UniProtKB/TrEMBL annotation:
Family note: Belongs to the zinc-containing alcohol dehydrogenase family.
Keyword Transmembrane helix: yes
Topology in membrane: Multi-pass membrane protein
SUPFAM superfamilies noted in UniProt: GroES-like, NAD(P)-binding Rossmann-fold domains
Localization: Membrane
Organism name: Fusarium pseudocircinatum
GO CC list: cytoplasm; membrane
Residue stretches spanning the membrane: 15-33, 40-61, 73-94, 115-135
Domain of life: Eukaryota
Protein name in the entry: Alcohol dehydrogenase I-ADH1
Length: 519
């Protein structure tokens, strides 16, 4: 079943709508006084228009709280848009009538033109110029910070002058986790950076397991353009960038990851020891607050611009992209297990994008790796990444028992779960040894439950942790392994048009390695 369609796309706050409605109420009273005092026919239309606006903004408040109901949306849209047109038309007709009268059209005499007629003559022209500059790409006013809501991007495209971007956009039906994500390729105007933003021209992007999770609705509401493992170069600077950081230059190579910006002041951000910025309560993310990397262009706030130092110039873009989310997620998760070289670590979901990189990083750090996945087809791949043993969860032999047998009955010192299956988490308890660490990485639907008993943790001294992506410093640390060729992402090339098929394969656990798409 498709998820309900949201008719209300641009959601103002209720207080703002209330203030506007109040202003229109004051205007209503003034207009009523004008009707009584002047008795001019034009004020009747003004009264009608203002009444429509008041009802329209009341409907807007209702529509904002009930986005899937079509009635309030149509009512607010109609009543808010039509009154200005009505008032402008009536007043303009009246102004023309008055101009004819003053020019001698009725009695043959010439009168001085009243001041407000100049306003009525000029205002519509200024309004048209303003709207043109706001809604058309490359305009001057957009450089001052005026922006078009995302829903309007691509509504008008001048093929000769507008820069284009190709994107994959997840339809609203994909927000329900049982639905199949659908994508389409579009051409849109190139985004224009705000004063504190940088425009990036992406060269390529890789596919991450989180993209599937977002497309299926497992990670809350998302935007239309997904993707968060992109590499590109600075294409344009916002108006304030040169003053804020003159070292940022057009042409610099940068990475686009899951986090686009943080507040820097919340309790999470200030907890530097625990790398709390990855859990900033006001963080802005790719594919949520900002369009993702399944596009040729995207915007990044200066504060969280992830510049790739020149020391990594020898690493190609296609090997950097997978590290920006999947790689750094695996690296940080294993690092935070606090293991000693030579100890056993289980990577559950080892044949996936994050899991395989986890195997590679764990092996490079000196740990003994047991790879766990479903089916015999991934054994060779996992061992090529550094796994010492492979456990097939579908072999018919209990996976927990296999791990215990491989570790002389002790169990692993850590189990890192990257598989997006509840069974993987449940079975992890059978693989842990005394004082072991269960590291939670993969994201499951909110309604999925894992069963455990407190005595398991009390008797075994287990620790449960969660790990979320990595900081900018973590990314540079993870890239050092690639530079030294200790970790080499296994790359497979695809086209952006292949997104839908790749998502379907990923949902079935059939993808091997990291898929990279040129843009």
């Amino acid at each position: 079943m498709d998820a309900p369609k949201s008719y209300y796309l641009y959601n103002p706050s209720e207080p703002l709508a209330g203030v506007v409605a109040g202003l229109y109420g004051v205007s209503f009273c003034i207009t009523l006084w004008q009707i009584i005092r002047k008795k001019a026919w034009v004020w009747l239309f003004m009264l009608l228009a203002i009444g429509m606006e008041v009802i329209g903004y009341a409907a807007r408040v209702v529509s904002a709280t009930k986005p899937t109901e079509k009635g309030p949306y149509v009512l607010q849209f109609t009543l808010v848009i039509l009154p200005p047109v009505l008032m402008a038309g009536v007043i303009y007709v009246r102004s023309i009538y008055r101009e004819i009268d003053f020019a001698g059209g009725k009695d043959g005499t010439t009168h001085q033109k009243e001041w407000y007629l100049y306003v009525f003559d000029t205002l519509p022209i200024l309004l048209v110029v303003f709207l043109y500059n706001v809604f058309f790409p490359g305009s001057y006013l957009k450089h001052l910070g005026f922006k078009v809501p995302k829903e309007n991007q691509g509504a008008v495209l001048d093929a000769e002058t507008a820069d284009k971007q190709v994107l994959a956009t997840a339809e609203s039906s994909s927000q329900e986790h049982h639905a199949k994500p659908t994508f389409e390729i579009k051409q849109l105007p190139r985004p224009v950076p705000g004063p504190n933003e940088v425009l990036i021209r992406l060269s390529l992007t890789s596919l991450c397991g989180s993209d599937l999770g977002m497309a299926l609705g497992h990670m809350g509401p998302v935007g239309k353009i997904l993707g968060h493992e992109g590499v590109g170069k600075v294409a344009e600077l916002g108006s304030n960038i040169a003053h804020m950081d003159p070292t940022v230059q057009v042409g610099q190579r940068v990475g686009i990851a899951w986090i686009r910006d943080i507040c820097g002041s919340c309790n999470m951000c200030i907890d530097i020891a625990n790398e709390g910025e990855t859990r900033c309560v006001e963080a802005l993310h790719s594919a949520k607050a900002y369009d993702g990397t399944f596009a040729e262009y995207t915007l990044v706030p200066l504060r969280y611009l992830a510049r790739i130092p020149s020391t990594f110039d020898d690493i190609p873009d296609e090997e950097i992209a997978p590290i920006l989310c999947g790689g750094v997620t695996a690296y940080k998760a294993i690092k935070n297990c606090n293991l000693t070289p030579g100890q056993w670590v289980v990577i559950s979901g080892a044949g996936g994008g994050v899991g395989a990189l986890g195997v590679a990083y764990a092996h490079a750090m000196g740990y003994r790796v047991i790879a766990v996945d479903a089916g015999p087809g991934k054994e060779e791949y996992c061992k090529s990444q550094g796994a010492e043993h492979y456990v097939d969860a579908l072999s018919g032999v209990d996976a927990g028992k296999q791990v215990k047998d491989l570790t002389d009955g002790q169990g692993a010192k850590a189990v890192v779960v990257t598989a997006t299956a509840a069974a993987a988490y449940q079975k992890a308890f059978d693989m842990l040894g005394p004082f072991g660490t269960l590291m939670c990485v993969s994201i499951l639907p909110e309604d999925v439950k894992i069963n455990f008993h407190p005595l398991w943790f009390i008797d075994n001294g287990w620790t449960v942790k969660g790990s979320a992506v990595g900081t900018r410093a973590d990314i540079l640390e993870a890239l050092q392994f690639v530079k030294r060729r200790l970790v080499i992402p296994k790359i497979k090339w695809a086209n952006l048009e292949d997104i839908e098929g790749l998502m379907e394969q990923m949902s079935k656990g059939q993808l091997e390695g990291k898929y990279v798409m040129k843009l």
